[in-house]
Design goal:
Number of strands: 0
Radius of gyration: 19 Å
Shape: globular
Number of domains: 2
Number of helices: 8
Distance between the termini: 46 Å
Length: about 150
């Protein structure tokens, strides 16, 4: 019989069972890069628009948002590990998103995940929204992947 174990009850002595520590996102570095890329005024404008948004009262609406990126993040982590990187970079994340977009939306999701797609107005087993966006720009997933892999070299 296998012993029961949970990361919730992990103690200092058995933290190794949880897995390797991932680098945390540096918020100051993200802010610096955003200001460098878009300008301080655009970042401040975006920040004030977000602060002015009305809060949703339905907690399910907030919880369903990450459902679309879970597989993409798993693919991104796998790509970063394959390349021997300790953390996921922007190219890894984009490649994970492209890989996830190859499959119809809802692939590999549980019943709860597919129900969340319905609440978001997305059709199960329909084309992935990222695929639709890329194809609307007269590009293909393979073309975008090749471009990203060239940058990643």
């Amino acid at each position: 019989m296998e012993p029961f174990w949970s990361p919730v009850v992990a103690t200092v002595g058995n933290q190794w069972q949880i897995g390797p520590r991932r680098e945390r996102l540096n918020a100051k570095e993200v802010l610096r890069r955003a200001e460098e890329t878009f300008g301080a005024e655009a970042v401040d404008d975006a920040r004030s628009r977000v602060a002015a948004r009305k809060r949703r009262t339905d907690p399910k609406a907030l919880c369903d948002r990450p459902v679309l990126i879970k597989r993409a993040l798993e693919y991104a982590i796998a790509h970063a590990e394959q390349r021997g990187r300790p953390s996921v970079g922007h190219v890894d994340a984009l490649l994970g998103l492209i890989r996830d977009a190859e499959d119809p939306i809802g692939t590999g999701m549980s019943h709860r995940g597919r129900a969340a797609l319905d609440r978001l107005g997305l059709r199960n087993n329909g084309p992935h929204p990222v695929r639709l966006i890329i194809e609307a720009a007269d590009r293909s997933l393979d073309n975008v992947r090749a471009t990203l892999l060239a940058v990643d070299e």
